[in-house]
Specification:
Rhopdopsin 7-helix transmembrane proteins; 10 helices; mainly alpha; two-stranded antiparallel ribbon
């Protein structure tokens, strides 16, 4: 085990621990609010599925990378090399789709102020069903991943490109794998274009609202625009983070894909960037959700009063 492997193991240990703790905390929080019905917001069902998908993304890629960095090389057999990337792709796809759903809902909310009462009572009732359909869709569209990925074998051709550090993707014998990869990539591009469009739309709506309120002076102040602006900024932050990490990870993936025998640091960098959004997004949600911050503040205040 080299120093580089040890350093990479520590990096993935830190990343995995932070991601699992943040997403697990939010998963418990959103599940509790949905089950009890206390202070439920329309976006809570979407965020519940988002943090669940992010947790699976971190667990599916972070743990075995961490173990490999600490010298445990051969703990994934052929079955494990098929299951782990499959669940990683499914969870990553659900994370992308739920982020799209979240940004689309916020655009509808901003652009439909007059009919917002009707939308706020009808749309959230469909979110749980829609998110369940997204899981089913991702399980179906990624069925080719276990076929393409193989585990370590004694008679395995060593020239196979190592896409997952210890698991390999065989050389395609037909256009089927290329079509499958192209189809998955096209779906990702469509979602990224949609998120970019919704982000631009939200920025324009907020800018027009800011210019409008400069000339309108109301005697009765309204907190609704402030709440909407804060929620919109949170979603814009999540979307920009997702697009940035996705593009950086895609660039690294292209270098890995076109390399006959890619360097392990490049493969590890691809995974690190691919899980970056799943690790950082829960802390963005925690810092922007007043319910969480108020709850943490009250718990810390009680703790200080008990032990102070």
């Amino acid at each position: 085990m080299t120093q580089a492997d040890m350093a990479m193991g520590i990096v993935f240990l830190t990343q995995t621990a932070a991601g699992v703790l943040g997403n697990s905390f939010l998963l418990c929080f959103y599940s509790y609010t949905l089950l009890t019905g206390q202070k439920v917001r329309p976006t809570d069902p979407i965020l519940n599925h988002l943090v669940l998908a992010n947790n699976l993304v971190v667990l599916s890629m972070g743990i075995h990378r961490m173990l490999a960095g600490f010298g445990w090389k051969h703990f994934l057999d052929d079955t494990g090399c098929k299951i782990v990337p499959y669940f990683h792709r499914v969870a990553r796809g659900v994370s992308l789709n739920t982020t799209c759903l979240l940004s689309g809902f916020q655009v509808i909310k901003l652009c439909s102020r007059n009919s917002w009462l009707t939308i706020s009572t009808r749309l959230p009732k469909c979110f749980g069903f829609c998110c369940s359909l997204l899981w089913i869709l991702q399980f179906l569209v990624n069925v080719s991943v276990p076929v393409r990925v193989t585990g370590p074998r004694h008679n395995q051709n060593l020239t196979l490109p190592m896409r997952y550090r210890f698991c390999s993707t065989g050389q395609p014998q037909s256009f089927g794998p290329f079509l499958s990869v192209f189809f998955l990539f096209s779906l990702d591009v469509i979602c990224l274009v949609f998120m970019t469009w919704t982000s631009v739309s939200m920025v324009l709506v907020l800018h027009r609202h800011k210019e409008r309120v400069r000339h309108i002076h109301s005697r009765i102040p309204s907190r609704r625009p402030d709440h909407e602006a804060r929620a919109t900024r949170t979603i814009l932050t999540l979307v920009s983070m997702f697009v940035s990490f996705y593009c950086l990870s895609a660039i690294c993936s292209l270098f890995v894909g076109f390399s006959r025998k890619p360097d392990l640091w490049l493969v590890d960098s691809t995974v690190f960037l691919g899980t970056g959004f799943s690790v950082l997004s829960p802390f963005v949600l925690i810092s922007r959700d007043s319910r969480v911050t108020q709850g943490l503040y009250s718990c810390s205040k009680r703790a200080f009063s008990l032990f102070g």
